[in-house]
Target: Methyltransferase domain-containing protein
Amino acid sequence: MAQMTDDDVIRRFYDAVADETAEVWYASDLLLCTIRDFLRLLPDRPDVLDLGCGTGHEAKRLHALGAAVTGIDFSPRSIAIARERTPECVFLEMDFFDLDPSISTYDGIFAAGSLIHLSPVRLQAAVACAAAVLREDGIFLAVLQVGEENRAEYPEIDGERIERVVYRHAKEFVLDCFSRAGLGFVRDAPLAQELAESGWRAYYFQKVSGSTAPARAP
Model:
């Protein structure tokens, strides 16, 4: 049997916890203040890409507040739940690195907790891919873990322990990463105190007019 890649491990983890995740997060409004603030920066009835949408819980809130939402995730089970529970949005089983502006572009990108499993090199590549589908002057909201050290977790999936790495990046690195993709830092975004105390931060970036930063393979 071929050895699983890091992506395979993460996909397996989120497939296994998708049902539990849906039950918890469809009932939670922890990100509601962040979502409301995000939408104030976008045009009316914006087209929003939910990058790493999971089971569609935040896509549902974005849509309820006026956005037309497309969610992508590489977890088949998560996408199945999202389609069942939030049929008013479009959900695609897709990797970040498969984004293509010839398919569609967006006024805003919402990435809540979906960038934490990307190493520095892969984070840069994923941001470049996402920037390519963001319209001029569009807004990218990134909710991610900030810090100097990564954290490894060892959940048990189907009787087997797997390693799930959470990457924490310094704010300076994150800002530089987005800048290299043609996305200028705007400001910090509001975040529920419970999330902030757990090491989460939320940042707004805006696509610089005329930026043609190329997407790069991971």
